[in-house]
Amino acid sequence: MTPGRLGTTVVTQQQEMSVKSVVVPFERDTANPPLGDLDVPERWHTVDRSAHAPHLVAVPGADGKGRTAAALVTARPGTAYWKIVDAVGDVPAAVRAVLDHARERGLAQVKWEGWTATPEAAAAAGFTPLRPPLAQSEGAAGPTAGYVRWLHDDDPVTGPAHHDGYSDPPYYGQSTHFTCGAVTALVALAHAGTLAREELDREAELTLWRGATNFPACEPVGLGVAVRRAWPSSPVTVHLDTDRPVLLDHYPENEREWRALLQRTSRTEAGRTGVPIAPDRLSLTAIQDAIGRREHVLLLVSLAAMQGFDVPHWVLCHGVVPGAVVIDDPWADAATGDTWVDAHLLPVSDRSLDTMSSLSTASTASAEPVEPVAEGFRGAVVIGRRS
User: Pfam families of this UniProt entry (predicted)?
Assistant: First the structure.
């Protein structure tokens, strides 16, 4: 079963008529004269979306002049989707035009925020409703509804997201700036049926973080050990291709020393609790294979590409589509117009995911300068299926 067939009637490309349209950059501080008499929501101009390449997909009038429809479209860099923020004018024509251009670019998916989109309009265009979030990340007040349409309807798809009986993982936005690791683990466990969805709340988030933290971040070994302790029936494997302490390079030496000690303690605890630490780099193919076995991969990435700041961050890898891995990201950056609709069921291109999950440094706790590890390091926690 492919994502496009989940819970809705698939509208194939052959059933749709192409729409003549133009794509132009969106300038927040201009009145957008190319849109003529079309009225656009104020939200188009109140948020600086420049980091997410905002552009207009506009449908010209029959005489080639003016505009009968337009959609504001954005996307996180390095990803394989487009998001419709709003469509105005002849909405069905605007949406068809967006789908046409997304296919031309080989994208995996188009999403549609539910600010003004109705369920009926979304369904008529072949979109499936996204399950509303259990919580939204701190400061990110997105729409109450969102919709998705997958564009590889006839392609083979692997992973837990694409088997009969599948339901999407719940979306839960982290409530702090530092609990991403705990949230991705909890969402994975809820998706696997190990944790009841109603138990995925802030208390669970902070409790798991407290057991895994390296103050304040969660490093791979500590996170894996905390998951195994809390859910001993779930197989857990840590993948970390360095034996040096990680995620410490921005601290002064005296701050690195005690955190490094805690990481060494986590390795000792991994041995005691039966959590293997694989020293080889987890390849992109291995990530895809794990997903194909219906396992969940918690992957440590840098947000430099997707959000513009080089901060280590945990995401959940749970599905595969042609050319991309489907992740859930517990963080949305409201300052760029990013919402839970972007972060949920997010396809990241294979090349981008491979790059962003190669973190640049692993730090020692010595007084000597921090030196980059060759080709960076990769950290991941794989949660297997319960036997």
Answer: DUF3335 (PF11814)
Residue range 264-318, pLDDT digits in tens:
999 999 999 999 999 999 999 999 999 999 999 999 999 999 999 999 999 999 9
Q: Tell me what the mean pLDDT of segment 144-154 comes to.
A: 87
Contacts of 197 (CB under 8 A, 6+ apart): 134, 170, 190
Indicate the length of the chain as a whole number: 387
Half-sphere CA count of 104, side-chain side, radius 13 A: 10
Handedness of CA 329, 230, 176, 360 (dihedral sign): negative
C-alpha radius of gyration, the chain, whole number: 22
Say what the pTM is.
0.90
Give the sign of the dihedral formed by CA 234, CA 235, CA 241, CA 244. positive
3-state secondary structure of 30: coil
Task: Give the architecture (CATH level 2) of 160-383.
Answer: Alpha-Beta Complex (3.90)
Token readout for 354 is 């491979």
Residue 254 CA neighbour count, 13 Å, CB half? 0
In this prediction, residue 17 carries a pLDDT of 64
Residues 6+ apart with CB under 8 A from 49: 26, 28, 74, 85, 336, 337
Domain locations along the chain: 3-150, 160-383
Q: How far apart are the C-alpha atoms of 44 and 166, rounded to whole Å?
A: 35
How many CB atoms sit inside 10 A of residue 207's CB? Answer: 15
CATH number of 3-150: 3.40.630.30
Cα gap 275→281, rounded to integer Å: 17
Give the DSSP letter string of 261-304: HHHHHHHHHHHHHT--EE-S---HHHHHHHHHTT-EEEEEEESH
